[in-house]
Design a protein that fits this description.
single chain, globular, six-stranded mixed β-sheet, three-stranded mixed β-sheet, 219 residues, tt1808, chain A, alpha+beta
């Protein structure tokens, strides 16, 4: 088929497409284990607590990203285990619909490996995130074997990240380190301090008050 005919055929196909609204629900399957869920919730709570005063990001877990150039829900979609989009409005969404988000893709993606998904996460998804999403930071973590790796996009190709002395990997997009702490993947500040959950922050404050002979229950 000639180029002109191919273009005509494409145009005819596009004219027949009925664009659905961008308000699409996530269509992700249940998480494989409770540990997968615990890991996602932990990262989400820590990041949202650390960035509690910011309104320019969106973070989610096990949520569908729709990115079909034809704006169809039935094709071209993926559901990263955890992802962060920067320079966007912080609000509740049913899914991430690229064509309704000014064409923005995640800046950071983490996949949590399992026996059934590891090969897909390391090969197919990695290629999609590199070539289509152009996501700058891609990480994966296995909560059972503790396999942990990270990549940064350089000249359109993912390059593996080198760990620091603590074994942590730097996320340029988040401005934070990621590292394993007590069997779970945690976030760390540029100076190496653990990013706490709200509960951990409260516990630390309560302990400090007790050191000062103040009962936190009376405050």
């Amino acid at each position: 088929m000639s180029l002109a005919k191919e273009l005509d055929a494409t145009q005819d196909t596009q004219e027949d497409v009925i664009f659905p609204p961008g308000d699409l629900y996530s269509d992700e399957p249940p998480l494989e284990t409770e540990l997968h869920l615990e890991q996602i919730i932990l990262l989400l709570k820590c990041l949202e607590w650390l960035w509690r005063d910011r309104t320019d990001f969106y973070a989610a877990g096990n949520l569908t990203i729709y990115y079909s150039w034809k704006k169809l829900k039935t094709e071209s979609f993926r559901g990263p285990d955890f992802f962060v989009v920067l320079n966007t409005e912080r609000k509740t969404r049913k899914s991430w619909v690229v064509w309704e988000e000014d064409g923005n893709y995640p800046n950071f993606i983490l996949e949590i490996l399992s026996e059934s998904t590891a090969s897909t996460d390391k090969e197919l998804k990695k290629k999609i995130y590199q070539d289509t999403f152009r996501t700058p930071d891609y990480f994966w973590f296995d909560p059972y074997t503790l396999e942990f790796a990270g990549f940064h996009l350089v000249d359109c190709q993912y390059q593996p990240l080198e760990p620091n002395q603590q074994g942590h990997l730097w996320s340029q997009q988040l401005g934070l380190y990621l590292g394993i702490e007590q069997g779970l993947l945690r976030l760390f500040t540029p100076t190496g301090k653990l990013v706490p959950t709200p509960e951990e922050t409260a516990d630390k404050l309560a302990a400090k008050l007790r050191e000062l002979n103040i009962d936190p229950e009376t405050i």
